[in-house]
Design goal:
This protein is α+β, with helices and mostly antiparallel strands. Strand 4 (74-77) and strand 5 (84-89) form a beta hairpin. It has 4 helices and 9 strands. The strands form 3 sheets. Strands 2-1-8-9 form a 4-stranded antiparallel beta sheet, covered by helices on one side. It has one domain (2-175): Cyclic Phosphodiesterase, Chain: A (Alpha-Beta Complex). The protein is globular. It has helices spanning 10-27, 49-61, 94-109, 139-147; strands at residues 2-7, 38-44, 66-71, 74-77, 84-89, 126-130, 153-158, 160-164, 174-175.
Length: 179
């Protein structure tokens, strides 16, 4: 799968990294999440990089920068309890939803197969803090730790989009509102 993401600005990327690093010990997990902190807006079957970049650039050009609110903590649990992901939820406001809809429609119009788990009925925007191989974590210890610290409450600027490949590499950022 490839993805269209909103890269976090430097301040929020550092905050997410610090938060994830603080969670690693209490979770019993060995490593924090990705160093490329982001909010995923679309996932799709791999296509030519020129196609995905052209579609994303067109959407970015007609989208003015905005701000999203991220607050608290959440957990995604896999179908059989084999995977556990801890994240900061992002409020699914009208501007973020409009961006998601425009990206999905534009990708589909270009013949790209978009993943169903980010459609209107399923998408939960978030910033992943810890994931992968978390089956053995001590959830009670993790919950006690997060209860004692201030919940993240961030106003995250959305000013760029990037396309990631299946290998986790990101394109150069595409600035919103540049016509």
């Amino acid at each position: 799968m490839e993805h269209v993401v909103i890269p976090l600005d430097l301040m929020h990327a550092r905050a997410a990294g610090d938060l994830a690093a603080g969670l690693v010990g209490p979770s019993g997990h060995r490593t924090a999440a990705t160093p490329s902190w982001h909010i995923t807006v679309a996932s799709f079957e791999p296509v030519s990089p020129s196609v995905s970049r052209q579609v994303v650039a067109a959407v970015a050009a007609r989208t003015d920068p905005f701000v999203v609110h991220a607050h608290g903590y959440g957990l995604f649990v896999g179908a059989h309890g084999s995977s556990l992901i801890m994240y900061v939820p992002v409020v699914r406001g009208p501007r973020l939803e409009a961006l998601r809809v425009d990206l999905h429609r534009s990708l589909e119009d270009a013949g790209v197969r978009v993943a169903h788990w980010l459609d209107a009925d399923h998408w939960t925007p978030h910033i992943t803090l810890i994931d992968r191989d978390m089956a053995e974590i001590d959830v009670a210890r993790l919950a006690a730790f997060v209860r004692q610290r201030q919940h993240p409450s961030w106003h995250v600027p959305v000013g760029e989009l990037a396309v990631s490949t299946a290998h986790g590499e990101y394109s150069d950022p595409i600035t919103l509102g540049v016509r």
